[in-house]
Design brief:
By secondary structure, the protein is an alpha+beta fold. Helix content is 17%, strand content 40%. It has a 17-stranded mixed beta sheet that branches.
Length: 286
Protein backbone atom coordinates (compact mmCIF):
# COMPACT_ATOMS: atom_id res chain seq x y z
CA UNK A 1 0.00 0.00 0.00
CA UNK A 2 1.21 3.48 -0.79
CA UNK A 3 2.20 5.90 1.95
CA UNK A 4 4.48 3.58 3.93
CA UNK A 5 7.55 5.24 5.41
CA UNK A 6 10.43 3.51 7.17
CA UNK A 7 11.55 4.52 10.65
CA UNK A 8 13.89 2.12 12.44
CA UNK A 9 12.64 2.86 15.97
CA UNK A 10 8.97 2.27 15.16
CA UNK A 11 7.30 -0.94 16.33
CA UNK A 12 4.66 -2.82 14.35
CA UNK A 13 1.72 -1.19 16.13
CA UNK A 14 3.15 2.26 15.49
CA UNK A 15 3.80 1.38 11.86
CA UNK A 16 0.16 0.43 11.35
CA UNK A 17 -1.10 3.56 13.07
CA UNK A 18 1.28 6.16 11.69
CA UNK A 19 2.50 4.83 8.35
CA UNK A 20 -0.79 4.65 6.49
CA UNK A 21 -1.48 7.49 4.09
CA UNK A 22 -4.99 8.71 3.52
CA UNK A 23 -6.59 7.46 0.29
CA UNK A 24 -8.89 9.75 -1.67
CA UNK A 25 -12.06 8.11 -2.96
CA UNK A 26 -15.42 8.92 -4.48
CA UNK A 27 -18.67 7.16 -3.62
CA UNK A 28 -20.88 6.61 -6.66
CA UNK A 29 -24.35 5.23 -7.20
CA UNK A 30 -25.45 3.46 -10.36
CA UNK A 31 -29.24 3.24 -9.98
CA UNK A 32 -28.76 2.23 -6.35
CA UNK A 33 -25.72 -0.02 -6.77
CA UNK A 34 -23.09 1.84 -4.76
CA UNK A 35 -19.34 1.76 -5.32
CA UNK A 36 -16.13 3.09 -3.84
CA UNK A 37 -14.18 4.43 -6.83
CA UNK A 38 -10.49 5.35 -6.65
CA UNK A 39 -8.30 7.07 -9.24
CA UNK A 40 -5.25 4.80 -9.42
CA UNK A 41 -3.85 5.96 -12.76
CA UNK A 42 -0.42 6.34 -11.16
CA UNK A 43 -0.64 2.67 -10.03
CA UNK A 44 0.63 3.63 -6.59
CA UNK A 45 -2.13 1.91 -4.65
CA UNK A 46 -2.15 -1.80 -3.87
CA UNK A 47 -4.94 -3.07 -1.63
CA UNK A 48 -5.37 -6.52 -0.14
CA UNK A 49 -8.60 -8.48 -0.24
CA UNK A 50 -9.09 -7.77 3.47
CA UNK A 51 -8.53 -4.03 3.02
CA UNK A 52 -11.04 -3.82 0.17
CA UNK A 53 -13.61 -5.80 2.15
CA UNK A 54 -13.05 -3.44 5.08
CA UNK A 55 -13.71 -0.37 2.91
CA UNK A 56 -16.88 -1.92 1.48
CA UNK A 57 -18.20 -3.07 4.86
CA UNK A 58 -21.23 -1.10 5.94
CA UNK A 59 -21.32 0.63 9.34
CA UNK A 60 -17.60 0.10 10.01
CA UNK A 61 -16.26 1.07 6.56
CA UNK A 62 -17.31 3.36 3.75
CA UNK A 63 -19.95 0.85 2.72
CA UNK A 64 -20.45 -0.29 -0.87
CA UNK A 65 -21.49 -3.15 -3.14
CA UNK A 66 -17.99 -3.09 -4.64
CA UNK A 67 -14.76 -1.17 -5.16
CA UNK A 68 -13.49 0.09 -8.51
CA UNK A 69 -9.93 1.10 -9.35
CA UNK A 70 -9.47 3.31 -12.41
CA UNK A 71 -6.07 2.45 -13.92
CA UNK A 72 -4.19 3.09 -17.18
CA UNK A 73 -4.76 0.97 -20.27
CA UNK A 74 -2.47 0.44 -23.25
CA UNK A 75 -5.37 -0.13 -25.64
CA UNK A 76 -8.30 1.89 -24.25
CA UNK A 77 -8.99 5.15 -22.44
CA UNK A 78 -8.72 3.48 -19.04
CA UNK A 79 -8.99 0.18 -17.22
CA UNK A 80 -11.66 -0.66 -14.64
CA UNK A 81 -10.65 -3.16 -11.97
CA UNK A 82 -13.78 -4.26 -10.14
CA UNK A 83 -13.75 -5.94 -6.73
CA UNK A 84 -16.82 -7.40 -5.06
CA UNK A 85 -17.73 -6.29 -1.54
CA UNK A 86 -15.95 -9.38 -0.19
CA UNK A 87 -12.71 -7.98 -1.63
CA UNK A 88 -12.22 -10.53 -4.39
CA UNK A 89 -11.91 -9.58 -8.05
CA UNK A 90 -15.35 -9.73 -9.61
CA UNK A 91 -16.77 -10.43 -13.03
CA UNK A 92 -18.31 -7.61 -15.06
CA UNK A 93 -20.58 -5.21 -13.20
CA UNK A 94 -22.86 -3.24 -15.53
CA UNK A 95 -23.75 -0.49 -13.08
CA UNK A 96 -20.13 -0.41 -11.93
CA UNK A 97 -19.07 0.10 -15.54
CA UNK A 98 -21.52 2.96 -15.93
CA UNK A 99 -20.28 4.49 -12.66
CA UNK A 100 -16.69 4.13 -13.87
CA UNK A 101 -17.53 6.00 -17.09
CA UNK A 102 -19.11 8.88 -15.17
CA UNK A 103 -16.17 9.02 -12.74
CA UNK A 104 -13.63 8.93 -15.59
CA UNK A 105 -15.39 11.87 -17.19
CA UNK A 106 -15.39 13.76 -13.87
CA UNK A 107 -11.61 13.43 -13.43
CA UNK A 108 -10.85 14.67 -16.92
CA UNK A 109 -10.11 11.51 -18.89
CA UNK A 110 -10.65 12.64 -22.50
CA UNK A 111 -13.84 11.44 -24.21
CA UNK A 112 -14.64 11.52 -27.93
CA UNK A 113 -16.82 14.04 -29.72
CA UNK A 114 -19.76 11.67 -29.17
CA UNK A 115 -19.12 11.87 -25.40
CA UNK A 116 -17.96 8.28 -25.58
CA UNK A 117 -15.02 6.28 -24.27
CA UNK A 118 -13.52 2.80 -24.37
CA UNK A 119 -12.35 0.93 -21.30
CA UNK A 120 -10.97 -2.45 -20.35
CA UNK A 121 -12.59 -4.68 -17.73
CA UNK A 122 -12.03 -8.36 -17.09
CA UNK A 123 -10.14 -8.91 -20.33
CA UNK A 124 -12.83 -7.32 -22.51
CA UNK A 125 -13.21 -3.86 -24.02
CA UNK A 126 -16.42 -1.91 -23.43
CA UNK A 127 -17.80 1.32 -24.83
CA UNK A 128 -19.64 3.89 -22.76
CA UNK A 129 -21.38 7.18 -23.51
CA UNK A 130 -22.68 10.04 -21.42
CA UNK A 131 -26.14 10.61 -22.86
CA UNK A 132 -27.34 13.29 -20.42
CA UNK A 133 -26.36 14.75 -17.07
CA UNK A 134 -25.66 11.80 -14.73
CA UNK A 135 -26.92 9.31 -17.33
CA UNK A 136 -24.60 6.73 -18.90
CA UNK A 137 -25.15 4.15 -21.64
CA UNK A 138 -22.91 1.10 -21.81
CA UNK A 139 -22.49 -1.46 -24.58
CA UNK A 140 -22.51 -4.89 -22.97
CA UNK A 141 -21.09 -8.23 -24.08
CA UNK A 142 -23.14 -10.57 -26.22
CA UNK A 143 -25.17 -12.83 -23.89
CA UNK A 144 -24.16 -16.49 -23.81
CA UNK A 145 -24.78 -19.77 -22.04
CA UNK A 146 -28.58 -19.72 -22.28
CA UNK A 147 -30.27 -22.47 -20.27
CA UNK A 148 -33.98 -22.90 -19.63
CA UNK A 149 -36.13 -24.75 -17.09
CA UNK A 150 -33.38 -25.70 -14.67
CA UNK A 151 -34.75 -27.76 -11.77
CA UNK A 152 -33.35 -26.31 -8.54
CA UNK A 153 -35.57 -28.32 -6.21
CA UNK A 154 -37.04 -24.95 -5.17
CA UNK A 155 -38.70 -24.26 -8.50
CA UNK A 156 -37.52 -24.00 -12.09
CA UNK A 157 -35.25 -21.16 -13.19
CA UNK A 158 -33.48 -19.99 -16.33
CA UNK A 159 -29.86 -18.95 -16.81
CA UNK A 160 -27.81 -16.58 -18.98
CA UNK A 161 -24.33 -15.10 -18.74
CA UNK A 162 -24.31 -11.36 -19.52
CA UNK A 163 -20.72 -10.79 -18.40
CA UNK A 164 -21.71 -12.23 -15.02
CA UNK A 165 -23.76 -15.40 -14.45
CA UNK A 166 -27.45 -14.97 -13.66
CA UNK A 167 -30.15 -17.40 -12.60
CA UNK A 168 -33.67 -16.07 -13.23
CA UNK A 169 -36.93 -16.90 -11.45
CA UNK A 170 -40.28 -15.49 -12.59
CA UNK A 171 -42.78 -14.60 -9.93
CA UNK A 172 -45.82 -12.52 -9.03
CA UNK A 173 -46.00 -10.46 -5.86
CA UNK A 174 -42.32 -9.57 -6.17
CA UNK A 175 -42.24 -7.47 -2.99
CA UNK A 176 -43.16 -10.51 -0.93
CA UNK A 177 -40.34 -12.72 -2.22
CA UNK A 178 -37.68 -13.81 0.30
CA UNK A 179 -34.82 -12.68 -1.93
CA UNK A 180 -32.08 -13.27 0.63
CA UNK A 181 -33.32 -16.67 1.76
CA UNK A 182 -34.09 -18.12 -1.66
CA UNK A 183 -31.24 -16.30 -3.35
CA UNK A 184 -28.56 -17.53 -0.97
CA UNK A 185 -29.67 -21.14 -1.44
CA UNK A 186 -29.44 -21.03 -5.23
CA UNK A 187 -26.35 -18.80 -5.33
CA UNK A 188 -24.23 -21.64 -3.90
CA UNK A 189 -25.61 -24.42 -6.12
CA UNK A 190 -22.28 -25.14 -7.77
CA UNK A 191 -23.71 -28.47 -8.97
CA UNK A 192 -25.93 -26.42 -11.27
CA UNK A 193 -23.86 -23.27 -11.76
CA UNK A 194 -20.08 -23.59 -11.87
CA UNK A 195 -18.60 -20.98 -9.54
CA UNK A 196 -22.03 -20.04 -8.23
CA UNK A 197 -24.42 -17.47 -9.66
CA UNK A 198 -26.30 -14.25 -9.07
CA UNK A 199 -30.00 -14.87 -8.49
CA UNK A 200 -32.77 -12.69 -9.95
CA UNK A 201 -36.48 -12.57 -9.21
CA UNK A 202 -38.57 -10.97 -11.95
CA UNK A 203 -42.14 -9.81 -12.33
CA UNK A 204 -43.18 -8.89 -15.87
CA UNK A 205 -45.34 -5.75 -15.66
CA UNK A 206 -46.04 -4.99 -19.36
CA UNK A 207 -44.87 -6.03 -22.85
CA UNK A 208 -41.88 -3.67 -22.46
CA UNK A 209 -41.29 -3.45 -18.71
CA UNK A 210 -40.50 -5.58 -15.69
CA UNK A 211 -39.51 -5.29 -12.05
CA UNK A 212 -36.37 -6.92 -10.69
CA UNK A 213 -34.81 -7.89 -7.36
CA UNK A 214 -31.34 -9.44 -7.24
CA UNK A 215 -29.24 -11.42 -4.77
CA UNK A 216 -25.63 -10.73 -5.76
CA UNK A 217 -22.77 -13.13 -5.21
CA UNK A 218 -19.71 -11.42 -3.72
CA UNK A 219 -22.04 -9.06 -1.86
CA UNK A 220 -23.96 -12.05 -0.46
CA UNK A 221 -27.09 -10.00 -0.03
CA UNK A 222 -29.83 -8.30 -2.00
CA UNK A 223 -28.64 -5.12 -3.71
CA UNK A 224 -30.73 -2.15 -4.77
CA UNK A 225 -29.84 -2.70 -8.43
CA UNK A 226 -27.82 -4.97 -10.70
CA UNK A 227 -26.86 -3.92 -14.22
CA UNK A 228 -25.90 -7.31 -15.64
CA UNK A 229 -28.98 -8.70 -13.85
CA UNK A 230 -31.19 -6.13 -15.58
CA UNK A 231 -29.72 -7.16 -18.93
CA UNK A 232 -30.22 -10.85 -18.10
CA UNK A 233 -33.83 -10.21 -17.07
CA UNK A 234 -34.66 -8.25 -20.22
CA UNK A 235 -32.90 -10.64 -22.60
CA UNK A 236 -34.38 -13.79 -21.10
CA UNK A 237 -37.88 -12.28 -20.94
CA UNK A 238 -37.64 -11.40 -24.63
CA UNK A 239 -36.26 -14.81 -25.53
CA UNK A 240 -39.20 -16.48 -23.76
CA UNK A 241 -41.74 -14.19 -25.46
CA UNK A 242 -42.77 -12.43 -22.25
CA UNK A 243 -41.58 -8.98 -23.38
CA UNK A 244 -41.78 -8.71 -27.20
CA UNK A 245 -40.16 -5.26 -27.26
CA UNK A 246 -36.42 -4.87 -27.88
CA UNK A 247 -36.25 -1.90 -25.50
CA UNK A 248 -37.22 -2.94 -21.98
CA UNK A 249 -37.61 -0.74 -18.90
CA UNK A 250 -36.35 -2.54 -15.79
CA UNK A 251 -37.45 -1.14 -12.43
CA UNK A 252 -34.95 -2.07 -9.72
CA UNK A 253 -35.31 -2.15 -5.96
CA UNK A 254 -33.97 1.39 -5.49
CA UNK A 255 -36.96 2.69 -7.45
CA UNK A 256 -34.78 3.74 -10.39
CA UNK A 257 -35.31 2.40 -13.89
CA UNK A 258 -32.64 0.92 -16.14
CA UNK A 259 -33.19 0.76 -19.89
CA UNK A 260 -32.00 -2.34 -21.74
CA UNK A 261 -31.96 -2.05 -25.53
CA UNK A 262 -30.86 -4.83 -27.88
CA UNK A 263 -30.91 -5.91 -31.50
CA UNK A 264 -33.46 -8.44 -32.71
CA UNK A 265 -30.85 -11.21 -32.57
CA UNK A 266 -29.98 -10.13 -28.98
CA UNK A 267 -26.30 -9.71 -29.82
CA UNK A 268 -25.90 -5.92 -29.60
CA UNK A 269 -26.94 -5.01 -26.07
CA UNK A 270 -26.94 -1.61 -24.33
CA UNK A 271 -27.61 -0.69 -20.71
CA UNK A 272 -28.60 2.88 -19.81
CA UNK A 273 -29.43 4.56 -16.53
CA UNK A 274 -28.40 7.02 -13.81
CA UNK A 275 -24.87 7.25 -12.42
CA UNK A 276 -23.79 9.94 -10.01
CA UNK A 277 -21.19 10.88 -7.44
CA UNK A 278 -22.75 10.81 -3.96
CA UNK A 279 -19.76 12.20 -2.07
CA UNK A 280 -15.98 12.35 -1.98
CA UNK A 281 -13.71 11.71 0.98
CA UNK A 282 -10.54 10.15 2.32
CA UNK A 283 -10.01 6.90 4.16
CA UNK A 284 -7.23 4.64 5.36
CA UNK A 285 -7.09 0.94 4.53
CA UNK A 286 -7.05 -1.35 7.57
Amino acid sequence: MRGIRNRPDMNKHEEKHFMTEEISFSKLSGAGNDFVVIDNRDCSLSLSQQEIAGMCRRRTGIGADGLILIEPSASADFMMKYHNADGHLGSMCGNGGRAAVWFAHSIGIPFGDDKGCRFEAGGHTYRGWITAHETVRLQMLEPKGFREEIDTGKGACHFVDTGSPHAIFYTTGLEGVDVVGRGSEVRHRTDLFQGGTNVNFIEVTSPDSLSLRTFERGVEDETLACGTGAVAAAIMSHRLGMTPATTVQVRVQSGDTLEVRFSSDMKDVFLKGPARIIYRGTTTAS
